[in-house]
Amino acid sequence: KDLVVTGVAHDVNVAKVGILDVPDRPGVAYRIFSALAQEAINVDMIVQTTKEQQTTDMLFSVSRDDLARAKEIVEAVAKELGARDVIVNDNVAKVSIIGAGMVSNPGVAARMFEALAKADINIQVISTSEIKVSCLVRAEDVLKAVRVVHEAFGLSQADPEAGAA
Amino acid sequence: KDLVVTGVAHDVNVAKVGILDVPDRPGVAYRIFSALAQEAINVDMIVQTTKEQQTTDMLFSVSRDDLARAKEIVEAVAKELGARDVIVNDNVAKVSIIGAGMVSNPGVAARMFEALAKADINIQVISTSEIKVSCLVRAEDVLKAVRVVHEAFGLSQADPEAGAA
Ligand SMILES: C[C@@H](O)[C@H](N)C(=O)O
Ligand SMILES: C[C@@H](O)[C@H](N)C(=O)O
Fold first, then answer.
1. What is the pLDDT of residue B105?
2. Which of A84, B51, B66, B126 places its Cα 20 to 30 Å from the Cα of A48?
3. What's the Cα-to-Cα distance from A22 to each of A35, A39, A55, B23, rounded to whole Å?
């Protein structure tokens, strides 16, 4: 029951696209992601918080090869929607812990965040599910991130358990 | 290959906590979520984007019963960290599509967003994984959201397939 994390995975073929201060009203998410889908851009993470204001920020990740096209597509839609800015960054990588029942184990995500904090690694993006906690960090930090997270959970880096990040 | 979405799930026992304009530097996520873990608060979704500025916004969800305590804990930590604000809202519910291989199907999330957009339902929070796209919407919109998302994916609402939201 204690060891819920079974693996650590990472992905360096990641780039992020952020749409800042986009109107927070129905139809906005649809406009952006249908435009990307129409161009067959595969989107990995989609992350959006709310500020309970007129606008909010959205972020998604794509493969590095798709970044230039994704940027072009999103900039066009963002302009029509009146978003303040579109930011892209391919100097990122994803590190994830994979396990089961993480919701009922509040310390699990905290332990991952602690490992990264102690290694002085900034967490740029967080997205979670019951079986996975994913963080985007600076690309040059990812191998260190993978190492310290393995250590934090007592996992061997030789462990082939890890699935996709 | 076409029908990747196998179920629609929802959860009304959800409340959200947002920490706005929190310093975007190592250790912040750890401080917040270890404080919650120490009080045994189960956290469901954790969502954070980056603005590539000095600060960013973080958001997480808890059960309704835990909201008051979570607010108290987070307000204390947020104050120490110098965050601008903590917002809470229990007038929300979660709706999710569950499937497989959604990453390689860019139109899947877009189709869910389209259904919600056409029903004039605002999407407050988005978090995704390869097997799930979850949205937080206003509580009074959730049953309509579940219905229109079932329809968008040609699923019957009698289908017991849906797992946890
Ligand atoms: C920001 C975006 O998600 C918007 N709230 C929508 O519903 O489409
Ligand atoms: C905002 C928060 O995630 C911060 N960037 C951290 O690394 O802890």
1. 79
2. B66
3. 15, 21, 5, 21
The beta-carbon neighbor of A18 closest among B29, B49, B120 is B49
> What pLDDT does A159 receive?
57
With both helix axes pointing from N to C terminus, report the angle between B107-118 and A28-38 in degrees, rounded to the nearest 10: 150
Report CB contact under 8 Å: A37, B106.
yes
Structure tokens at B1: 């290959």
Tell which residue, B89, B141, B81, B133, has the closest CA to residue B111: B133
Q: Rounded to the nearest whole angstrom, what is the distance from the C-alpha of residue A55 to the centroid of ligand 1?
A: 9
Q: Which of B43, B106, B136 sits opposite A109 (nearest CB)?
A: B43
B21 lines ligand 2 (CB under 6 A): no
**CA B25, B38, B131 angle in degrees (round to 5)?**
70
> What is the structure's pLDDT at A158?
75
The whole-angstrom distance between B96's CA and the closest CA on chain A is 11
Residue B55: CB within 6 Å of ligand 2? no
Please say whether the beta carbons of A149 and A109 come within 8 A: no
Using the 8-state DSSP alphabet, how is residue B158 labeled?
Answer: T
Low-confidence ranges of chain B (pLDDT < 70): 1-3, 102-104, 159-164
What pLDDT, on a 0 to 100 scale, did the predictor assign at position B1?
Answer: 40
Quick check: B34 and A114 CB within 8 A? yes
Residues of chain A contacting residue B104, judged by C-beta atoms under 8 Å apart: 42
Torsion of CA B157, B159, B160, B163, to 10 degrees: -70
Estimate to the nearest angstrom the gap between the alpha carbon of A144 and the chain centroid: 17
SS3 B95: strand
Q: What is the model's pLDDT at position B162?
A: 53
Instruction: Show residues of chain B in contact with A107, CB under 8 Å.
Output: 34, 37
Q: Name which of B132, B19, B119 is nearest A50 in CA terms.
A: B19
Q: What are the per-10-residue average pLDDT scores of chain A (165 residues)?
A: 78 97 98 96 94 94 97 98 97 94 80 98 94 95 97 83 62
